[in-house]
Amino acid sequence: MKKGMFITFEGTEGSGKSTQIRRAAAFLRRRGVPVLVLREPGGTKISEAIREILLNKDFTEMKPETELLLYLAARAQILREKIFPALKKGMAVICDRFEDSTLAYQGFGRGMSLKDIQTVSRLFVRSDFQPHLTFLLNIDPKEGMKRGGRHDRMERESYLFHQKVQRGFLSLARQNPKRYVILDARLSIQTIGRKIEEDLNRCFPKK
Q: What residue numbers bound the domain in which 159 lies?
């Protein structure tokens, strides 16, 4: 059985991830590739319930440590319930956010130790488990916040916070150049989509 592939999309608020994920999934399905599309936090009944707590705009008193543990709890569930089984079946799993978002938001954004985050994360995730390919849609947080609105708790964070997050993503991309593809989110949907398809084509060549 062919080994599955785990693909993640990362970026700050309003970067256009959802649109490009839909396009990427449709592209792979046209190639005959079985695809599972998920989001973090979420993707399972339990993880979606945790998502409601995490993004509730009324929970402004939530502490960074609480936030981190809730994200990791949601990830532990989706990994074992959805991601690992799908990869074992040889599917392409596309996930809207994964561990890089935790490092960017709770690490660079909240100021928590990246080493501590990774140490705690290893209690939930196999130490060798990483996405095979990560697309980073890079955009100035001011523009992204205009696009995305200010609806949930994370979206309502300050420009400075989102700026730190963006810098975090770029730092992670520089540290993982073989895995990351950085895309200019200011470009047209079609231009970004074609670039993503080029990279996916190398991973899933037409038969």
A: 5-203
What gap in Å lies between CA 104 and CA 47, rounded to an integer? 20
1-21 pLDDT tens trace: 468 999 999 999 999 999 999
User: Whole-angstrom Cα distance, residue 111 to residue 67?
Assistant: 13
CATH for 57: 3.40.50.300
Tally of structural domains, the chain: 1
Q: Helix, strand or coil for residue 133?
A: strand
Q: What is the pLDDT of residue 65?
A: 97
Place of tokens 């209690």: 123
The set of residues, in sequence order, having a beta carbon less than 8 Å from that of 65 and lying 6+ positions away, is 112
Question: 189: part of which helix (H) or strand (E)?
Answer: helix 189-203
Whether 87 contacts 4, CB under 8 Å: yes
d(CA 163, CA 207): 42
Whole-angstrom distance, CA of residue 148 vs CA of residue 146: 6
